[in-house]
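Supplementary notes for students who missed Thursday's class. We covered one full example, reproduced here. Read the sequence, then the structure, then the short commentary at the end.
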Amino acid sequence: MQSWGVNFFGHAVVASWHDAGGGRALGAMLPDFQTMSGARVAAVDDAEVAAGIDLHHATDAAFHRLPAFVGLTREVEARLRAADVGRGPTRAVAHVGVELLLDGVLLDDVDGCATYLAGLDHPIATITWREPGDDARFAHLHGRLRAYGVPRDLARADAVAHRVLRMIAPRPLLRASAAEAEVIRRELAAMAPRVRVATPTVMAALRAAMTPAPA
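Structure (token representation):
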């Protein structure tokens, strides 16, 4: 299964802790954008974008170890298993569903929203793509994201469920049946208040985990 971590909007929020510039924010979101578009980066000739890519991987490494996040995903897994949702969709939804619900709460972060938009506005000409057509695939996604702006729909649990189900639908081992999809919608809605309460703890723990220890 794909190893998910912080979602792209959350990566922009983390980038806002380090640098309000668009280059680092774009780089921090770029690995997720690659997955979303199917394009693959061969090289980046922009130091800030490259630093953002490194920040992305450091963020995910720290995030996956946070007890608060692990606890939330295990709670979702338990709820879905109890409702007879299959192992594949249960594991996928528990991870990405919690991440997107977190993003919905992070929409309240004004600096994070500004950094997200700055990242989308940053020039992409310094990115070299691996395969023919990758540039067009990325440009299509990039254009859609810029036109859409801040993903305000993530504040709604039903929109989160819609995104999650759309993400796992192409994966036979993760795809939910119609009955499972109804359970997933219900349980993500039930978890949304829990995630809202836990988000400050999750983000404080992430910031602490990513802060270098004093020399």
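Commentary. The mean pLDDT is 93. The chain has nine helices and two strands. If anything here is unclear, bring it to office hours.
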